[in-house]
Design goal:
By secondary structure, the chain is mainly beta. It folds into four domains: about 1-30 and about 165-310, Pectate Lyase C-like; about 40-145, no CATH class; about 315-340 and about 350-525, 3 Solenoid (Pectate Lyase C-like), CATH 2.160.20.10; about 530-665, Single-stranded right-handed beta-helix, Pectin lyase-like (Pectate Lyase C-like, 3 Solenoid). Helix content is about 5%, strand content about 25%. The strands form 13 sheets. Strands 2-12-15-18-21 form a five-stranded mixed beta sheet, with no helix packed on it. A five-stranded mixed beta sheet has the order 3-11-14-17-20, with no helix packed on it. Strands 22-23-26-29-34 form a five-stranded parallel beta sheet. The longest helix is centred in the middle third of the chain and has 17 residues, at about 325-340. The two termini are about 45 Å apart. It is an enzyme of class 4 (lyase). This is Pectate lyase.
């Protein structure tokens, strides 16, 4: 799988992919973001003129010289089919078919109308698809393009944006990709490209900004970098390459080669493997390259393509059928947010008779979770069966329990492993209490709390969570809903209030461990997130973690007495002026590359210097640094009456000793 770029300022000229075996018609499962933008040169019979100025265009690259100086390009559109370079050579696409003109921008994923892009892309046989005029297309679902198609937007400004996307696959060892003549400019972060498996030829591109890295990969891809210009954007981003969190012994034999590249401002490309790899892998198909010093001239015409779109989760996340039932729950969730905004914390811990007094746990929610009683006012429900049926759960199963109406205190008859077929939708006023049993939710879908309130989950082990395909799921006692694909988060919160996640163990989740979105900071434009209040306390953030522990938009975040001993990018991050109070944490830098605890995105200090980010009583080891901003007394001004008291950071090793699921025996304290 290859993905390119992570920001709206991406300006690709072209990117091609094709399988190694020329006769194989079906593409490997690759999702590429590609486009060919509108012709912006005025072309007369006497030659090419750029932007209608009387300045002759001097093409220095192969593709433009092949087809751009034809004044009758509109009549000879199919000449483009003879110009594919690199590993795309021989790609004729719709050359042998009829023209299909897209006239309608409206997308219907299930029943596309004639004249729409989806209707065109799904026709049998070759087609050369053009557009009647400029348009913006919002895809309801992924656009599945069938074989032998050319989508040609020349002469129109066509944007595909604000819609769906996808990812995965391991047959990518057969992947061959050429990335050439692109300008990767200001604001880009990483993945230009990032590759798994395959053979990637990166040739004559201009890289003048990256925040983390420019070119990355895992799973032993071959990357040949030739004739590129790499200009380091600043002291914090000199290294061009990234191989994830692997040690050099794990990637030293990967073939990553730099030839003819030009380096400025201290940029560095770390090579590995066979320096002659370009001669061994697909060299007969590789484009010739010019020296990196020529890149400014070569990429002159790689401007003005559509912006790379960042897709942000919405209130309707994963709900396929957004019916009256879900509309009502959304409205209820918004009301619950207002009710929960002023909370009130107090106690925490257990007694020797916990098994007889399980519901005492409901009085112990700390910090901003105070007042979360879960199923305290309901009956006990004992889970006896680990089998999951997403559409028709049997009595005695966890799914049957969490979808019942009204409060329930859910326990387990004994230790069990539960593999969820689809997301587990937890309704309001529930406590899932696994004390006294070893309960694992693993190797399937995760847990979702959506438009619900007053929920406690205690003691579960949640791991190896994978995305699910969605479908019909029981999400209420008297309701079944259609869900879209899930992301593979351990626990996802959408529009939820008064939720206490207590003594959980989470690891190896495909997307994230805990994803708190919407009403809790999913969108930069969703101002209701200013009401968000979160306490993150007594956690151990250990080996293998990268970032977002947490990352916040808006709101008030209290980070207290946690142990941070590994992060690859940063530990605590935020945008849109959240208030972050860090008290009594231990920050131990994992290495020379990760000293800074905080991250405020790509913003300049003038933009965040008034944000209230405060460190009090934290303990720093191995050179770790927390960069504060704003009012150092902010903890006294914002929600101080709700904040837990903290112990000095030096005490964290003792304080977090019981992080994760507790080992509880009847008749003894947990």
């Amino acid at each position: 799988m290859t993905s390119t770029g992570r920001h709206e300022n991406w300006k690709p000229l072209r990117t091609w992919t094709r399988p190694i075996t020329p006769t194989r018609r079906r593409w490997s499962a690759i999702t590429m973001t590609t486009s060919l933008g509108p012709c912006s040169s005025f072309i007369s019979p006497k030659g090419c003129w750029h932007n209608r100025k009387r300045v002759p265009v001097r093409f220095t690259n192969h593709v433009d010289s092949c087809r751009r100086c034809d004044p009758d390009w509109e009549k000879n559109r199919k000449k483009l089919a003879d110009c594919a370079p690199g590993f795309a050579r021989g790609t004729t696409s719709g050359k042998d078919g009829e023209f299909y003109v897209v006239t309608d921008l409206i997308d219907n994923a299930a029943d596309p109308k004639p004249g729409t892009l989806r209707h065109a892309a799904t026709q049998t046989g070759p087609h050369w698809i053009t557009f009647k005029g400029s348009m913006t297309i919002k895809l309801q679902q992924k656009l599945i393009v069938t074989s032998d198609k050319t989508i040609d937007a020349r002469g129109a400004n066509v944007e595909v944006c604000n819609g769906a996307a996808s990812d995965s696959y391991s047959a990518d060892k057969k992947m061959q990709v050429t990335v050439d003549l692109n300008h990767f400019g200001k604001g880009l972060v990483a993945r230009m490209p990032r590759c798994r498996f395959g053979f990637i030829h990166v040739v004559n591109n201009d890289y003048n900004h990256w925040f983390l890295y420019a070119i990355g990969g895992t799973n032993n891809p071959t990357i040949i970098s030739q004739g590129n210009r790499y200009s380091a954007p600043g002291f914090g981003a000199k290294e061009v390459t990234c191989r994830g969190l692997l040690k050099s012994a794990q990637w030293k034999n990967w073939n990553w080669v730099s030839q003819g590249d030009h380096f400025e401002s201290g940029a560095v490309f770390t090579p590995s493997g066979n320096p002659s790899a370009s001669k061994r892998f697909g060299a007969d198909k590789m484009m010739p390259f010019k020296p990196g010093q020529m890149v400014p001239e070569l990429k002159n015409y790689s401007f003005f393509l559509f912006l790379f779109v960042v897709i942000i989760p919405t209130l309707e996340d994963h709900i396929t059928e957004y019916d009256e039932y879900w509309t009502a729950r959304e409205l209820e969730a918004i009301k619950n947010l207002d009710k929960a905004y002023h909370s009130n914390p107090d106690c925490w811990r257990c007694d020797p008779d916990w098994e007889k007094n399980r519901k005492k746990l409901a009085d112990c929610a700390p910090g901003f979770a105070q007042g979360t009683t879960g199923g305290k006012d309901g009956e006990f429900y004992v889970v006896t069966d680990p089998i999951d049926n997403a559409a028709d759960p049997k009595p005695g199963t966890l799914r049957h329990a969490v979808t019942q109406t009204g409060p329930l205190w859910i326990t387990f008859k004994g230790s069990m492993t539960i593999k969820l077929q689809q997301e587990l939708i937890v309704t309001s006023d529930k406590t899932i209490d696994s004390r006294g049993a070893n309960v694992e939710v693993c190797n399937g879908a995760g847990i979702t709390i959506q438009f619900a309130k007053n929920i406690t989950i205690h003691g579960l082990q949640i791991h190896h969570i994978i995305p699910s395909k969605g479908g019909k799921i029981k999400d209420g006692e008297n309701h079944h809903g259609l869900r879209g694909d899930s992301d593979g988060d351990g626990v996802s919160l959408f529009g939820a209030t008064n939720v206490w996640l207590d003594h959980l163990s989470l690891h190896h989740c495909a997307d994230g461990l805990i994803d708190v979105v919407i009403l809790f900071g999913a969108s930069d434009s969703y101002s209701a997130d200013k009401k968000m209040q979160v306490t993150v306390d007594l956690n151990h953030f250990g080996k293998g973690l990268v970032e977002r522990m947490p990352r916040c938009r808006f709101g008030f975040i209290h980070v207290i007495n946690n142990d941070y001993n590994h992060w690859f990018l940063y530990a605590i991050g935020g945008t849109n002026n959240p208030t972050i109070i860090s008290q009594g944490n231990r920050y131990s830098s994992p290495g020379f590359w990760a000293k800074e605890v905080t991250c405020r995105g790509l913003l300049k200090s003038a933009q965040w210097r008034n944000w209230n980010w405060v460190s009090q009583g934290d303990h720093f080891e191995s050179g770790a640094i927390f960069t504060p901003s704003g009012n150092p007394s902010a903890s006294k001004r914002f929600g101080a009456d709700k904040m837990m008291p903290f112990k000095p950071g030096q005490m964290v090793p003792e304080l977090k000793k019981y992080a994760g699921p507790l080992s509880c025996s009847i008749g003894r304290p947990c």
